[in-house]
## 1
Amino acid sequence: MTDFLLRALAGGIGVALVAGPFGSFVVWRRLAYFGDTLAHSALLGVVLGFLLHLNLTLGILAVCQSLALLLFLLQRQKHLASDTLLGILAHGALSLGLVLLAFVETLRVDLFSYLFGDILAIGRTDLLWIYGGGAFALAALALIWRPLLAITVHEDLARVEGVPVEAVNWGFMALMALAIALLMKVVGLLLVTALFIVPAATARRFVVSPEGMALGAAGCGMLAVVAGLAASYRWDTPAGPSIVVAAVLFFFLSSLLPRRGR
Amino acid sequence: MNGRREKTPERLVAVEDVRLAFAREEVLRGVSLEIRKGEIVTIIGPNGAGKTSLLRVLLGLQPVTSGRVSTAPGLCLGYMPQRIVVDAVLPLTVRRFLALTGKRKTPELNRILGEVGAAGVLESPVQNLSGGEMQRVLLAKALLREPDLLVLDEPVQGVDVQGQIELFSLIGRIRRERGCAVLMVSHDLHLVMAATDRVVCLNRHVCCTGTPGSVQEDAAFRQMFGPEALRNLAVYAHQHDHDHGERDRGEGRHD
């Protein structure tokens, strides 16, 4: 196997490990559209990162975090439903990114690689980001795991029982932004949500605990990465979409298997 | 009973002259209420009377527009929300549900489930519980905290009449055995009347308050629920088709 394929495999597996636990919360808390919105803003992060001579991953991270904060503040007003707000921010941020991109003549980015990922171009720095950032994101998620689960079940009950709801929610949003910046490298901004929700949805049938679902989702994600990369190598298909197709295939195939639990 | 409870002063929570308004709508006006140690207080009132809002104020979940809310220092609250629906996509057993905000040992969990009459559901997914079982599990979760005050929002909602009678008698027994105060909200008149020390009739303001017996004689109470309902108190079912105008006139007269 060649070097670039090994790096792709390592990067993909790292990203799947991060996507599993975060994706479970995305599914439990119905945050698919929220994740999508943060991902759509990533292109803006790339352009701003380039203009400000920042690391592009840092640029993505900064823009995602700002958008999460903006959303948090906007949701305090009650005039618009949150899916409307999300739609405004998602497409506003993506379009602003594309428009700014046109102004920066010196920046020749391969748009396709940002939209759909470029796992075959993953380098050592990317791997460092994926494993360093991923380990941090997972460790921090483990720290807030119990209170976050309590909030997911019933926010008021958690609050009465002493959970610092705002702090935990805010921490989770910030970690989501980090996870999205990492997932971007593998499947691109348009397919990030798929890597969150498809493996988690696949795992649900076979688990009886929240932690089981997080691990199962990570496992399903890794299988999809391996299968998608193999298919991409064999038939020369785009890697990111191949991984998502593999994940979706696993989802439908798994629904033929008997489910666990009562 | 335990050390903490002995130190608890008589008055557990109190609201004084509380007003709560959202945008254009005034939900609570001039509401004063206090809950004392060991008593069972029931808030009754028609739909939209602000019952749940008042509970949320007392729980500290809802900031008030004006007025004072005070809580005894160190007060431990047990809260049973109106209804919890755990999405089927979240795999959660009763064991995990009970231990969401604190580690619990199996004997403790079994004992508390036995106390509320839901023994044997510990390893079931919460989604598989019947309405009555879920209410009992919610009650168990509130009791695990050894609360000084149990706050129950429509505790018998979605439970059949036999189950309602059992739940009210369970609540009475919990008060006797644990000595905790109970504050509940109810739609139902008949069953609640038998299970409570003090009734508060709420219709955005406190229309009347007192023992179940005295409240039933109160003109404001009769105005609120109508002569028909009182005549049929024994087979009471709450009327949802309250005439707004009549209700408002009633408030003015008895404020």
## 2
Amino acid sequence: MKLVYFAWVRERVGKTEEEVDVPASVATVADLVRWLTERGEEYAYAFENETVVRAAIDRRHVKPETAIRGAREIAFFPPMTGG
Amino acid sequence: MTATIRIQAEDFDVAAEIAALSEGRADIGAVVTFTGLCRNEGGRLAALEIEHYPGMAQAEVARVVEEARGRWPLSGVTVVHRFGKILPGQSIVLVVTASTHRRAAFEAAEFLMDYLKTRAPFWKREHVADGSTGTWVEATEADDEATERWR
């Protein structure tokens, strides 16, 4: 599964993207965030405010309770400031 | 309905986009245009840098345009959103809507902007005149609230 990061989420994690092997117990986006925060300080820092970081699965906005099974690309980013 | 959606670094020509949208269309009675510009912020800002999610930006803007189509009778829509370095005074985003009558064109343009602000995957970073590290612009509650009125 490919993870991609944008804006200050990317800066805190220290990577633009990475490939991860996620255990089956990690079922939802919220589970994935929790799993990531346990991997290192940089992730804990990026996701320190659980309600702020947004996610997209295969380029579509998703909620934290969305299942990640079958996802090819999951993106994490701050609230958008386009327009 | 013709929809033109472009995500690009280059500046755009508003008059050319309007002409492209309305050319040869006798049924169009109203064309509404919105241009979003980079403000100067009282001389504090040197530039805005816009990051985007290349794979998703086009798709998400298309989804928002599709929703506008479902709500209003539109003859055409054009959305152009820039990324990269934008100087104060330069254009960031263009929304053009065309319809038989003006109400649909006005409302759809406003709807599109409200939704682009909250759903399109772009992130602005300020580069300040004194050269210090740019801070990320924060999303506002006002923008989220703006989308509420279309529910």
